[in-house]
Design goal:
Largest sheet: 8 strands, mixed
Strand content: 15-25%
Oligomer: single chain
Helix content: 25-40%
Number of helices: 8
Length: 385
């Protein structure tokens, strides 16, 4: 059936970063045709996912663990080129090679039930029961399944501190960082204990008048190799939070910071001497509970990101704990909706695997229609939670 002003497709993929492209590849590989059976929507202006927004001094040799997309490796990359250019070009070539026909820039405004009840109570193919209505800036889609791969870049987390509104200098998030030059001669406080905080602090320190590094918890530096066993253990910690219906922590947050030679030198020089989180901000700097003060011109919040899933709010997927319970990549509250690049799959290798797993599960959904074997189980889980 054709609905006026609404395009029917089997699958809508939201996001064309690592996870979205991996999912699109596996859809195409298993016989689904772009723009006929599925569509990939991306709100960014060009290929590259969140990588296209990385600061220009983050060269490719500084990137930790960029895993190749399925079916096409990244070869002969100049390690001194900005990672945004290297990976943006790689993603562009990937989209063209496999004919994924990504629609951009397209904003997804909301995903909601098309009408009626859950997907297994009415015939698949009717906008009312079996399909999701995906409202976008280029028109609406009626989809039998959804792969959400929107990542976190659009939701930088800004912490709140007493006195923050009185600070007379600049405050910015690491997502707005465009290189060290704008910090030349400034007294800079960097807040955050992740990879971006460390990388940006090490770039700023040589040109700043002074730097101060503060973190909520003491940073953990990881020595030695990080193998498959350690990776599985880290992912398991993130998966446990998802099973409990809690907002996921990033995989990186539980693996620790890799002890590179550059980090070792920065620690020895005192650049990475860490202070606990300050108590409040003043017009001229920061104050700690023990009376310590630091004068500052800039506060740089390298405090991470949250999952960009507000467009899924009409589906009411969240648990009381604030997260989304999942079985694999499938949300327990709606068997049609898969999250990839979320929680345990929020790493480059995890995103690839999640894309493949989501497509495998969705193929079962499309083949079985409303009689899908796990549909009643999913509905029971939803009612019991």
């Amino acid at each position: 059936m054709i609905y006026t002003g609404v395009r029917e497709v089997d699958v809508v993929v939201i996001g064309a970063g690592q996870a979205g492209l991996a999912a699109a590849f596996h859809l195409r590989r298993t016989g689904h045709e772009p723009d006929r059976d599925f569509v990939v929507l991306d709100h960014s202006p060009r290929p590259g996912g969140a990588w296209q927004f990385r600061w220009p001094t983050l060269t490719y040799d500084k990137v930790h663990g960029m895993h190749a997309l399925p079916g096409m490796t990244l070869t002969d990359a100049d390690p001194q080129r900005p990672s945004s250019e290297v990976i943006g070009g790689y993603f562009d070539s990937y989209e063209q090679t496999f004919g994924l026909r990504v629609h951009r820039p397209v904003s997804v405004l909301a995903v909601r039930e098309g009408g009626g009840g859950p997907p297994w109570t009415e015939p698949v193919g009717a906008l009312g029961g079996g399909r999701l209505l995906v409202e976008t800036s280029e028109g609406d889609y009626a989809a039998r399944a959804l792969i959400n791969a929107t990542g976190t870049w659009d939701r930088p987390f800004w912490p709140r501190f007493p006195g923050q509104e009185t600070f007379g200098g600049r405050q910015l998030h690491s997502a707005q960082y465009d290189g060290p030059e704008r910090f030349r001669g400034a007294r800079v406080v960097v807040v955050g204990g992740g990879t971006s905080a460390v990388q940006q602090l090490m770039e700023i320190a040589p040109v700043a008048a002074a730097t101060t590094w503060v973190t909520r918890r003491p940073p953990v530096f990881r020595e030695g190799p990080f193998g498959e066993e350690q990776g599985r253990a880290a992912v398991a910690l993130v998966e446990e939070r998802v099973r409990q219906g809690l907002p996921p922590r990033s995989v990186v947050s539980v693996t620790g910071l890799p002890m590179t030679e550059a980090i070792r030198r920065a620690r020895e020089s005192g650049v990475l001497e860490r202070l606990p989180l300050f108590e409040r901000l003043t017009p001229t700097g920061a104050v700690w509970a023990d009376g310590r003060t630091v004068e500052a011109d800039v506060i740089l919040y390298a405090t991470g990101f949250r999952a960009a899933i507000d467009h899924l709010a009409p589906l009411r997927l969240r648990e009381p704990g604030g997260g989304i319970r999942m079985e694999g990549t499938r949300t327990l509250r709606d068997a049609r909706v898969h999250l990839v690049g979320y929680g345990p799959s929020a790493s480059t290798i995890g995103a690839n695997r999640a894309g493949r797993a989501a497509v495998r599960d969705i193929r079962r959904l499309l083949a079985a229609g409303p009689q899908l074997p796990y549909a009643e189980e999913a509905l029971a889980d939803s009612r019991a939670s």
